[in-house]
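Justification of resources, computational component.

The compute hours requested in this renewal are based largely on the per-chain cost of generating structure records like the one below. Each record pairs the submitted sequence with a full structure-token output. That output is archived, and it is also reused by downstream analysis tasks.
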Amino acid sequence: MHLSYIDYPYKMLGSLSELCVLNQYRVAQISELPSGLPGSLLQKSPGVLIVSSGDMINDCYIMVNFHRLGKKSVIDQQPLIMAFDHLNQTSYAAFLQHGSWSGRTYSVNTSGLIEIAKASGIQSYFPCLNLPKSMQGPLEELEVVSPTNMRAFWNSIAALDRELGEHTT
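The structure output for this chain reads:
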């Protein structure tokens, strides 16, 4: 696993906080996401899960876990982890590449339905099996109903902390 950093300014925290309250998760539509995210990834993602942890005094982490259509009828998780340092008003954002946690990539047995969805432009309505059925809730609930998304969150934080030399509490 490695990180690919992108520029995502601290001021964008407000837009993300409006979508997902701290210490909660939320299933969101691509159209709800704030600007500044790679358009090519947005076009390939029928679903996205936002996970938020921390507080507004010290720092917080927000993960936007894209569930993107891959080749050969699979859906891959592509987590974007963001760390916001409130004291210094700085941010770090990076995609976690080549993750290997259980459930990161899953097959969709559709007999060509994904290819039809891609060609028709309706992929944004294609169901993602690893997204929770509830649209939002506490992180404790997400651990139970969608552990693969929580693994993406914790793996992303660990990778970011290793590269930044920080310690997660």
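The radius of gyration is 15 Å. The helical segments are 13-19, 39-44, 113-120, 139-145, 147-164.
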